[in-house]
Structures are given as structure tokens and as C-alpha cells.
Specification:
Elements: E1 6-9, H1 17-29, E2 34-36, H2 41-50, E3 56-61, H3 63-75, E4 79-80, H4 88-91, E5 93-98, H5 100-110
Parallel strand pairs: 1-2, 1-3
Antiparallel strand pairs: 3-5, 4-5
Helix pairs in contact: 2-3
């Protein structure tokens, strides 16, 4: 059981600063969650996979910053939103990655849906 959750939060200049600040305010006041920002989405995703932080969210991340770290997180058992939805590979998308309990706890706040991986025959 995770007693204190620590998230990595990324900030994109493509979206209003007010949205980022709202997320920080919500996480601290409503969820009692700590956050860290290291400035590199790929590094933060590796921190999720290694257990150094309990999740990572960024409202817009480019695919070249996300895909390798996303694969590492999924191999470590983390859940993610469908980063590739729409035109995500070219235009980028929001990303939310965390272990299952943390992911479900905050998915509604981050307004993301889980990516369901379907095994091919």
C-alpha cells in the first residue's frame, strides 16, 4: 500500500499555465499528493518504471519524448492512457502513466482513458 504518493508532472508550453497550476493545486489540496518536475518526460517515465515516483502526467508530450519510456513503464507493469490516439504520433498527446491503483485514482482528474492492449493471434 502506498502511503504517500509522489508524482512527476511535466509542463508543456502548448497549453495554458493556468491548467498546470490547477493540477498542482488539486493534487496538493484534494489528493494530498507531492509532485516533482525534472524537465525531461523520458526521464520521468523511467522514474515511474523504477518506482522512484508513483506516476507521471503531462498534458502534452511529443512522441519522440514518450514512446521509449512508455514501453519501459508498460513492461514494468504500469498502466497508461492511449498516447497514440488520434494523431498522437505526429502531434503528441497527454500522457498519464502509473501503477494500477494510482492510475485509477487520478485518471478522471487527468481526463484520460486507459489504453487496452489486445493480444494478437
Amino acid at each position: 500500500m502506498i502511503l504517500k504518493v509522489v508524482l512527476g508532472l511535466g509542463r508543456s508550453n502548448r497549453l495554458p499555465l493556468a491548467d498546470y497550476l490547477h493540477s498542482i493545486e488539486y493534487l496538493i489540496e484534494q489528493e494530498n499528493i507531492e509532485y516533482r518536475r525534472f524537465g525531461a518526460g523520458a526521464l520521468m517515465l523511467c522514474h515511474v518504471a523504477s518506482g522512484q515516483v508513483h506516476g507521471y502526467y503531462e498534458a502534452h508530450l511529443n512522441s519522440w519524448d514518450a514512446l521509449a519510456g512508455l514501453l519501459i513503464c508498460q513492461e514494468a507493469g504500469a498502466l497508461s492512457n492511449d498516447f497514440e490516439q488520434g494523431n498522437g504520433l505526429i502531434e503528441g498527446n497527454p500522457i498519464w502513466v502509473a501503477p494500477p491503483k494510482v492510475w485509477q485514482r487520478l485518471a478522471e482528474h487527468f481526463q484520460v482513458r486507459r489504453r487496452y492492449l489486445v493480444a494478437e493471434d
